[in-house]
Amino acid sequence: MRRARTVAAAAALALIGLAGSVWLARDPRAPAVPPEETLPAGSWRPTAPASREAAVERARLLSLPYVAGRRPAPAGSGVVRSVAGRVAPVRRLYTSGHGPEALLIEPDGRLAARWRLPYERAFPGVSGGGDLSYFRRAAPLPDGGLAALFQGGGVVRLDARSELVWAWRGATFNDLWPLPGGGLLVLTKEARIVPDLAPGREVLEDSVTELSPEGHPVRAVSLLRALGDSPFRDVLHPLPAGADILHANTIEVLDGRCAERSPLFAAGHWLVSLREIDTVAIVDPATGRAVWAQRGPWRRQHEPTLLPTCRILLFDNRGLDGASRALEVDPLTGEIAWSWSGESGRPLSSPEAGTAERLANGNTLVVESEAGRALEIGPEGEVVWEFVSPHRAGRANELVATLFEMRSVPRAGDGGGA
User: Fold this and answer.
1) How far lies 388's CA from each of 76, 101, 239, 342, in Å?
2) The domain spanning residue 149 has which CATH number?
3) Is residue 162 part of a domain?
4) How far is CA 79 from CA 76, 105, 106, 109, 110, in A?
5) What are the phi and psi torsion angles at 217 (to 5°)?
6) Among 38, 65, 123, 257, which residue's CB has the most CB atoms within a 10 Å radius?
């Protein structure tokens, strides 16, 4: 489990069902900090659209989409498999393409809590629909509330009763990370022309934007510049043909647990996943530059996380001859320590999205997003728990809703994830 999220989640469970004790100022129209004023100088000379609102809309149009549902709905749903004594005793929080909500369930599938807020209520006067009709990501907070991300549309903070605390509208995509003290890191995009990189065409510049505890933008760090102004700029070539040239899909703040092995893993560094260039990177936010970046045996990866063993666990979407697998690899040597690609006759397959999380009991929670499945896998590759989404998508509810993520949420006092 990604440690900072686990700690916040454990504290949150003590307050589930109670109102948040602090009502923060709602400011859904807080202006963004212009990236040119906040990012380190370098060789890039981006040209922005006429206005920030235009940049937000262009980013939504040019970004690679995730869909609410893609595959036919299966007959069964809920917890369809559970091996007694082998399942981690943690709750599980998930979001899917069926609607703007996050659900917390017990290991047996019973609903423990729900947070829900339609986009139109968060941003009155702004139309929703499409990829704004669901939460792409969500994270429980210490006060019992929730932070949730609308794909391409902004971030909201809710209290324990799903009441809106604040909302920030922006071109937010794929992931967020709660910070100590109540702030957030979110992945954002802006459409730009970068002559030094892609003369004559518009591309999306991915950044990490920090929001204050009140939902105001504090700073932005360009991931495009972080690579371009580093010794690892070669990973940008060959440049993908589309506009969404990086497609950052995950951010994790490192806690320093592996700093003795390498200064790359210093506390506060960011571990990021850049799907379109098949790259996992570490960025020093103090300098705004990448200190490590690597392509590996993975393709179109999601959810890299640093384990206590100093290996990286990730969901490899297409690296197994186009099929998927959960992959544990040593980032410094390239050695593959563990992988799981599905059961016999039932290979893992999720070309888009997908997550993998190491649990405290040694099992691994794997999400096959497009199939709407979550599986808990034992160390030897045995499936000890399986959940099939009960939610539907499509015009006639003929599709299973994409299960974007499922993460463990320990009860207060539990050890949480690895």
Assistant:
1) 7, 17, 37, 15
2) 2.130.10.10
3) yes
4) 9, 10, 10, 6, 9
5) -65, 135
6) 123
How far is Cα 102 from Cα 352, in angstroms, rounded to an integer? 20
Sign of the CA dihedral with 109 first, then 113, 115, and 116 last = positive
Q: Give how many domains the chain has, as a whole number.
A: 1
* pLDDT tens digits along 12-39: 444 343 332 222 233 333 333 333 333 3
In a domain, 415, yes or no: no
Whether 402 is covered by a domain: the verdict is yes
Residue 330 lies in a domain: yes
Whole-angstrom Cα distance, residue 69 to residue 130? 11
Which residues on adjacent β-strands are paired with residue 105? 92, 111
pLDDT digits (tens, 9 = 90+) for 326-364: 999 999 999 999 999 999 999 999 999 999 999 999 999
In whole angstroms, what is the distance from residue 394 CA to residue 401 CA?
8
Q: Classify each residue of 137-148 as buried b or exposed e, where b means 16 or more C-beta atoms within 10 Å of its C-beta.
A: bbbbbbbbbbbb
* CA distance readout (Å), 216 to 23, 121, 172, 182, 362: 15, 19, 14, 12, 39
Report yes or no on whether pTM surpasses 0.70: yes
- CA-wise closest residue to 302 among 264, 267, 350: 350
Q: Is 213 left (phi over 0), alpha (psi -120 to 50) or beta?
A: alpha
Boundaries of domain holding 307: 3-409
* Measured distance CA(354)–CA(367) in Å, rounded: 5
Question: Helix or strand or coil: residue 366?
Answer: strand
The set of residues, in sequence order, having a beta carbon less than 8 Å from that of 288 and lying 6+ positions away, is 39, 40, 221, 222, 225, 226, 229
Residues of the chain by 3-state class (helix, strand, coil), percent to 5: 10, 40, 50
